[in-house]
Amino acid sequence: MAQSAEPVSLVYRDQAFVVRLAGQSHSVGIGPQPVPRVVHKVGERFAVWDERGITARDGDHLVSARLEDAALSPKLFGREEILKTRELIESGRRQKSPGRLAGTLLAGTVAYFLPRWEDFDGNPWLEALYSVDLSQPRPVPKLEGKFEGFTVTPGPEGLGLYDGSVFAITRAGDRWGYAFFVPATGGFGFLAKGSRAESVARLSNSTALVIEQSEYGTRLVKRFHLPSGTSRLAAEVRGTVKLVSASPPVIDVDGPQGRFLRNLDSG
To answer: Do residue 221 and residue 120 come from a single domain?
Structure first.
C-alpha cells in the first residue's frame, strides 16, 4: 500500500517564508537587507551609521540626525527645487530618508558621513555631508552641505582626506572631478578634471582610474593624479572594461579576444 506524502506547509512571517517538512523548518528571508553599520570612536565617544541614520553618543547621551530634513533643506536647495522635491515625494518617486551611505571617514577627531538619496529608478538626487566632532562633550551631528555632483563609487570608501580637505570624486553632468570640503572655512569647491569619461573610480586619496573611449574605438584606461591633474596611460584595449579591484588595480576586459582579468600593476 502506497504511503501518503509528507505534508508540506509554507508560511509567510516576519519578512520571511518558513517551510516545514518532515518535522524541520527552513526560513528564507525576502525583506530588505540590513544596513551595514559603521562606527567611529574617539575616547569614549562614538559616531555611528546604521538603520537609524547618524547617531552621536557620549556615555548615555544620544543624539540622532534628522536626515529627513535634508531632503527639503534651504541650506541645500533653492525654493523651486524644494517644491519639485516635495511633489516627487508625495508621488512616491522620491523618499525623504536616504537609502545608503556614499562615504565616511574619521579625520582626526571628526567623523564625516555622506548619506545618499536615490529616486524610484535608483538615480541619485542628493548626497549630504554631515560631521560629528568627537572632541566635544555631547557631540551633535551637523549638516555641512553638499558636494557638486554625485560620487562615482558610492560606498564606505567614497570619502577621502587630502591636504586637510575632505573630498569625493564626483560626476556633475558630463564632467567629473575632485569635489572637496574645507573644514577650516566650511567652504565647498569642485575642480573639474575631465569630461565624458565612461567610468571613474578612486584608487587612493591622490589617484583615480579613468576609462575613456578613443576616437578609433578602443578603451583608454588611465591613471589620473588628482592634485596635479596629470594622467598616464595604463592600458588600451578593445571591448568593454570594468574595474573589479582598486588594490591591486584589476580590470575586467570583455572583447574580441575573449574575457579576461588584467592587473594594471603587473600587466
So the answer is: no
